[in-house]
Design a protein that fits this description.
Molybdenum Cofactor Biosythetic Enzyme, Chain A, 6-stranded mixed sheet, single chain, Alpha-Beta Plaits, alpha/beta, elongated, 17 strands, Maf protein, 3 domains
């Protein structure tokens, strides 16, 4: 088996360093590489600076056989990447009349004249292979030097993605001799430390797999297994899932809402919601997927007590006696919305999202979720954070997970 390719990514852009733009390109490239069995060895973000670009290329060429550069190929004055690359590879750029005519034709089709600045993008050289751009004017560049390949791509996501898919991935797949395999086990309900404790012996007995724990604040922990030995990966995956099955809700790109949607469709069930503090966020999650009308009947955002009483049908005496944020009201919201919207399942959510509105008896973060199903109401009480946004998002995820567990029992 050959050695695994070492791939480096250099993201160029002052706006990436200042935080005005988030580098999503590198994450997208990393994911596409994993899909074909490769992983990124090293990644760096640098400014639009000739010395920095040269220094980074020198550094990466020591350890990587394929280097992907994104950003800095635009026509504006601060985009100095192209000039720097020609100098670095000892190439002499010449004006590409043929490509300039192609640009003129493209702009004429939309009744525009090509801006003079775009002449910067109409160059080629003896040592470079130009990579076609189906979505913009800046072509990519492919250089080879001392056995390493260098690809320079625009930073505009759609343009960069097009070149990765049409040119770079096929190039890499052709040279691929050893694949990296990756599987993600998606869990919820346990913090990272306890989860790790439960399976540490399995990890230690399988030295062929790299294991990473990736916590998601809003859901749970992903356990990512990576190795070039596929059998080892599958063995370890099976052992882990058998050990912690009640916390595993899916794999790889599964989302909790998609898992819930599949179970609702499989069991031919419908659901309705009555949301107070989450203000329709649960309904939005349940309808994120195509075909959601098959299982989602509808929902009510009942922020005020009047709406809880008059629209959903919550008993006014219960509201007066226990208050809107209570187990009793969550139960009523769930059962009454199921009846009102003729649904198999009703979900009621009520809570104090914060940052104000809490009392000693009912602090900020106190939330009740009620799920009505088969003439029973299942109630969950959560004492969450002082942060309003986190409380609302977390409540939706916790509620979906409770619904998932309920559907798995039936």
């Amino acid at each position: 088996m050959g050695s695994v390719m070492k791939i480096g990514i250099i993201a160029i852009g002052n706006e990436l360093l200042s935080g005005f733009t988030i580098d999503r390109n590198s994450a997208w490239i990393g994911q596409r590489l994993l899909e074909i069995g490769l992983k990124v060895h090293v990644k760096k973000t640098i400014a639009d600076d000739a010395d920095m670009i040269t220094k980074s290329l020198d550094e990466f060429s020591q350890d990587c056989d394929h280097i992907i550069i994104t950003g800095g190929l635009g026509p504006t004055l601060d985009d100095i990447t192209v000039k720097t690359l020609y100098e670095y590879f000892g190439d002499n750029p010449v004006f590409d009349e043929e490509y300039w005519k192609e640009l003129e034709k493209r702009f004429k089709a939309i009744n525009m004249k090509v801006p003079t600045l775009n002449r910067n993008q109409a160059h080629t050289g003896d040592k470079v292979k130009m990579i076609d751009n189906s979505f913009g004017t800046a072509r990519g560049m492919h250089f080879e030097k001392d056995g390493s390949n260098y690809f320079a791509l625009p930073g505009v996501p759609k343009e960069m993605e097009g070149m990765i898919l049409s040119y770079i991935l096929p190039h890499l797949e052709e040279k691929l001799t050893s694949k990296v395999h990756c599987e993600t086990i998606r869990t919820t309900g346990l913090p990272e430390s306890i989860l790790q404790e439960k399976i540490v012996d399995l990890i230690e007995s399988n030295k062929n797999c790299d294991v990473a724990f990736l916590p998601h604040r809003m859901l749970g922990v992903d356990i990512r297994l990576t190795t070039s030995d596929h059998k080892s990966l599958l063995d370890l995956k099976d052992q882990i899932v058998n050990r912690i099955s009640k916390y595993v809700y899916g794999f790889n790109n599964d989302t909790i809402e998609a898992i819930v949607a599949d179970k609702l469709k499989e069991q031919n069930l419908t659901v309705a919601t009555a949301e107070s503090c989450t203000a329709g966020m649960l309904s939005a999650k349940l309808t994120n997927l195509s075909g959601s009308s098959q299982y989602f009947n509808g929902g009510v955002v009942c922020y005020s007590n009047a709406l809880k009483r008059d629209i959903v049908g919550v008993d006014g005496d219960l509201l007066d006696k226990y208050g809107a944020v209570s187990e009793e009201v969550a139960s009523e919201l769930a059962s009454k919305i199921a009846t009102k919207l003729k649904s198999d399942i009703g979900i009621g959510i009520t809570g104090i999202a914060g940052p104000k509105g809490g009392t000693e008896k009912k602090p900020v973060g106190l939330t009740f979720v009620g799920i009505f199903y088969k003439n029973n109401v299942y109630i969950k009480q959560y004492n969450l954070t002082p942060n309003r946004k986190i409380n609302r998002q977390l409540t939706v995820v916790l509620c979906l997970n409770e619904l998932r567990k309920l559907l798995e029992k039936n």
